[in-house]
Specification:
With 685 residues, the chain is an alpha/beta fold. It contains 22 helices and 21 strands. The strands form four sheets. Strands 11-12-10-13-14-9-15 form a seven-stranded parallel sheet, with helices on both faces. The two termini are 29 Å apart.
C-alpha cells in the first residue's frame, strides 16, 4: 500500500464509507495519514460523585438508580437516568439518543464521562459517554486519538484505518537533511507520523507534533519563496494620473479618513503610479476602514480608462459591496459603472454581465470566485482586489492576475498578524497596515463567563431582541460528534428555541449547507426575518449586519484568539452598543488567561501580540488559530518559534543550493514537488 493509493484499499472501506471519507477531504492513503486527531482523550480515574467539580469534564463510576426516562421539550428529545455511588447522586441526560433506553438498565454498573453542569434538570452530567467498568480500566491513563468525523463515519473506523495504514503502507522516506534535524532536535518523519496518531504519552506527542509542524511551515515557505523568485518585478504598463473622481468622494464623505487610512492610501497610489506593478497586502483590524480604500483605488482605475475587479469571499458580501459602492457613486455624481457577477446568478444574468464586461460597459466588476471563470473576458483590467486574503490563496491570485495584461494586485485582510510573522507568511507581497480605528466606532463591551451564566445570557439576548436588535450564537461544531465534548449548531438551535419565546425566530447556519441555502439564510438575517442566528465560524467572514449587537461564543476556549476577534467583528457595526459574551466550557471562566486578553482589549494587533507572548509550544490541545492560513497542525501564533526556524532554514537552503542539486537536498526536492502539486495547490487555491 502506497500513500497515493485510494483509501478504499484499506480493509472494511467500501464505496459508501469511501464516500464518507471524501466528505472529510480524504481520498488517498496519504490524506488519511494527514487527517490528524482533533484532540486526545486522557482517561483519568473515576471521581466520586460527591467530589466531582461543576463545569468540568468528569468521570464517575456508579449504579443506575432508576429506569431511563424519555422526555420531550418542544423539538428537543431527552433521555435521563439517575446514577449514584456511596458519595452522592447525579442525573445523566442525553439528547436525541433514544436507542440508549435499550442499553441502560436499572441496577447496572457503568462508567460515565461527560461535562457536569447545572441546568433545568439540576446538577446534570450532560451527554456523557458510557463504558463498561472493565473496558474503562484498560483505557485508563492512556492517550486516545479523537478524530473529526462526519455523518456515517465514526472515529473508531478512522482510527482502525489509520492503524492499518501505519502497519502496512510503504511510508515516505526521510526528506529533511540530517543537519537540519540535528540542529532543531526534530524527530524522524516515520516516527512522527506514527506517534501523532497513537502517542504513548504527552512528551512523545509534543516531540512528534513539532516535527510535523516544522514540515508544514517549511514546505509552505519554500513554495512561496520559489514562487516569488519566478516572479520578476514587472514594469507598470498603466497610467494612473487622473484622481478627480476619488478626490470628490474624499471631500464629500461624511467623515474624515484616519491618519492610518491616509497613509495606506498614499502607499497604494504610489504603487499605482510607480515603475513596477503593485503586489500589496493591506492588513487592517475589523472596522478599520479598508473597504473605502478599495473603492477609492478602483475609482482611480475607472477614471483612467481601465477596469477594476473586487473579489469577495461570499455572495452576500459581494452584493453588499455592490449596493454600497453604487450608492456612493450615485450620491457623489461619479459616472463609474459597477456590475455584479456571482455563482448563483441565472445563466441569463451572467451572460448580460459577461457582455458588459467584454464590451467595456462596466468599469468595476464585483463578485466572488465567478470573476476568475474562463467565460469572463476583461477589457484592459488594471487592478484586482481580493477581500479577506485568508479565503484566497496564492494560486488564486495568480489565476486572477492572468485575466488581464497582468494587473496590479491588492489583497485585504482583517486578520491581525504581527509584522514579523506576516513578512514570513506573505513573502510575495509588500505589506501595509491600517492600525487605527475611526473615532465614531463604539467599543464593544466584552465578558468571559462559564456555562452557569447561560440562563442570564439568554435573558439578555431576549432583551436586546425585544429592543429590535439581533444576535449571533457561535458553536464549534455542526452536529454532535463522537468523543468531542462541544456545543453543535443543530442541537443548540433546538435548545435555544425551547428556552426563548416562540415569537423569537432562531435559525442555524453552517458550512455543510448548500451555497444557495446559506445565502438565503444570511439574506433573511439581513432582512431581520431571523432574530438569532446559531452558526459555526462560517459567519466569521462575509456579511455586514449593523443591527446585530450581540455575539455569544460557546466553547470559546476551543477557538484561537485571532478567530474569536474576527467573530467579535461581526457586531459593533451600527450605531447601537454591542456586546460579546465568551462562554468558557472548560469551567475556568474569568481565570482563563487567553480569554481575559480578549475581554480587556478590542485591538486585534495587541491581542495577537499578547497571545504570542502568553502561549508556548506545549499549548497545543483543542485550540487553533484559524481565520488566517489554515495549516493542518501548525498555528502561526502558538508555533511562531517553529515558524521562524522553518523560515531561516528555507532561506539558508535556497541561498546555498537554490536548485537542490546537492545529494542531501534531492529527497527534499522530490517532496517539495509533490507538496506543490498536492497540498499547496489544494489548500491555497
Amino acid at each position: 500500500m502506497r500513500e497515493s493509493d485510494p483509501v478504499s484499499k484499506c480493509k472494511g472501506i467500501g464505496p459508501k464509507t469511501a464516500e464518507a471519507f471524501r466528505h472529510l477531504g480524504i481520498e488517498t492513503v496519504g490524506d488519511l495519514l494527514r487527517h490528524y486527531p482533533a484532540r486526545y482523550d486522557a482517561f483519568a480515574p473515576a471521581t466520586p460523585i460527591g467530589e466531582a467539580e461543576e463545569g468540568k469534564i468528569v468521570t464517575i463510576r456508579g449504579t443506575l438508580m432508576t429506569l431511563p426516562q424519555a422526555s420531550r421539550f418542544g423539538r428537543l428529545a431527552t433521555l435521563s437516568v439517575t446514577v449514584g455511588d456511596g458519595s452522592g447522586r447525579v442525573k445523566a441526560v442525553w439528547f436525541h439518543q433514544p436507542y440508549l433506553k435499550n442499553t441502560l438498565h436499572k441496577g447496572e454498573h457503568w462508567v460515565l464521562r461527560g461535562r457536569l453542569v447545572r441546568n433545568r434538570f439540576g446538577l446534570t452530567l450532560e451527554q456523557p459517554q458510557i463504558y463498561k467498568p472493565e473496558d474503562y480500566e484498560q483505557m485508563q491513563n492512556t492517550l486516545r486519538p479523537v478524530y473529526g468525523t462526519v455523518s456515517g463515519l465514526s472515529g473508531k473506523v478512522i482510527g482502525k484505518a489509520v492503524a492499518q495504514v501505519l502497519d502496512e503502507a510503504d511510508l515516505e522516506k526521510e526528506f529533511l537533511p540530517s543537519e537540519v534535524r540535528g540542529r532543531y532536535g526534530l524527530a524522524e518523519w516515520n516516527y512522527a507520523i506514527r506517534t501523532i496518531h497513537f502517542p504513548p504519552d504527552r512528551e512523545e506527542l509534543l516531540f512528534a507534533r513539532e516535527r510535523l509542524v516544522f514540515d508544514e511551515f517549511f514546505l509552505f515557505i519554500l513554495a512561496i519563496r520559489r514562487l516569488k523568485e519566478k516572479k520578476e518585478e514587472k514594469p507598470n504598463p498603466f497610467s494612473f494620473e487622473k484622481t478627480s473622481w476619488s478626490d470628490t468622494i474624499l471631500k464629500q464623505l461624511p467623515y474624515e479618513l484616519t491618519g492610518a487610512q491616509k497613509r495606506v492610501f498614499g502607499e497604494i497610489r504610489g504603487d499605482l503610479r510607480g515603475k513596477n506593478l503593485m503586489n500589496r497586502l493591506i492588513q487592517g483590524d475589523v472596522g478599520s476602514g479598508k473597504t473605502i480604500l478599495a473603492l477609492l483605488a478602483l475609482t482611480d482605475a475607472a477614471e483612467n480608462g481601465y477596469q477594476g475587479a473586487l473579489m469577495a469571499p461570499t455572495e452576500v458580501l459581494a452584493r453588499q459591496h455592490m449596493e454600497s459602492f453604487t450608492e456612493i457613486y450615485e450620491n457623489h455624481g461619479i459616472p463609474c459603472r459597477p456590475v455584479l457577477l456571482t455563482g448563483s446568478m441565472t445563466a441569463s444574468e451572467k451572460r448580460k454581465a459577461y457582455e458588459k464586461i467584454a464590451a467595456r460597459e462596466a468599469d468595476l466588476i464585483i463578485g466572488t470566485h465567478a470573476l476568475i471563470q474562463e467565460k469572463v473576458i476583461y477589457d484592459n483590467l488594471a487592478l484586482v482586489i481580493t477581500d479577506e486574503q485568508h479565503r484566497f490563496g496564492v494560486r488564486q491570485r495568480e489565476s486572477f492576475s492572468q485575466k488581464g495584461s497582468t494587473p496590479h494586485i491588492l489583497v485585504m485582510s482583517a486578520t491581525p498578524i504581527p509584522r514579523t510573522l506576516a513578512i514570513i507568511l506573505y513573502g510575495d507581497l509588500d505589506i501595509s497596515v491600517v492600525d487605527e480605528l475611526p473615532k465614531s466606532r463604539l467599543p464593544i463591551k466584552n465578558c468571559v463567563v462559564d456555562v452557569s451564566y447561560r440562563p442570564k445570557a439568554y435573558r439578555f439576548l431576549q432583551k436586546e431582541i425585544e429592543e429590535g436588535r439581533q444576535a449571533y450564537v457561535i458553536c464549534p461544531m455542526v452536529e454532535e460528534s463522537e468523543g468531542l465534548d462541544a456545543e453543535n449548531v443543530i442541537d443548540y438551535t433546538e435548545r435555544l428555541r425551547a428556552a426563548l419565546p416562540p415569537s423569537i425566530r432562531v435559525e442555524y447556519l453552517h458550512g455543510k449547507m448548500r451555497p444557495k441555502e446559506k445565502n438565503e439564510r444570511m439574506e433573511q438575517f439581513l432582512r431581520k426575518e431571523i432574530q438569532i442566528l446559531v452558526s459555526t465560524t462560517v459567519i466569521e467572514v462575509g456579511v455586514n449586519v449593523p443591527n446585530a449587537t450581540v455575539m455569544m461564543v460557546e466553547n470559546a476556549e476551543r477557538f484561537g484568539l485571532a478567530q474569536l476577534h474576527q467573530l467579535r467583528g461581526r457586531v459593533g457595526r451600527g450605531s447601537h452598543q454591542s456586546y460579546c459574551i465568551f462562554v468558557d466550557g472548560s469551567g475556568d471562566g474569568e481565570n482563563n488567561a487567553r480569554l481575559k486578553i480578549l475581554k480587556d482589549s478590542n485591538d486585534g494587533f495587541r491581542i495577537a501580540s499578547e497571545d504570542l507572548k502568553l502561549r508556548g509550544p506545549g499549548d497545543v490541545f483543542g485550540v487553533r488559530q484559524s481565520g488566517n492560513l489554515e495549516f493542518s497542525l501548525g498555528d502561526i501564533f502558538t508555533d511562531s518559534r517553529i515558524l521562524q526556524a522553518a523560515s531561516d532554514t528555507a532561506e539558508e537552503i535556497l541561498r546555498s543550493d537554490p536548485e537542490f542539486t546537492l545529494p542531501e537536498h534531492r529527497p527534499l526536492a522530490d517532496r517539495l514537488d509533490r507538496y506543490r502539486k498536492e497540498s499547496f495547490d489544494r489548500l491555497y487555491l
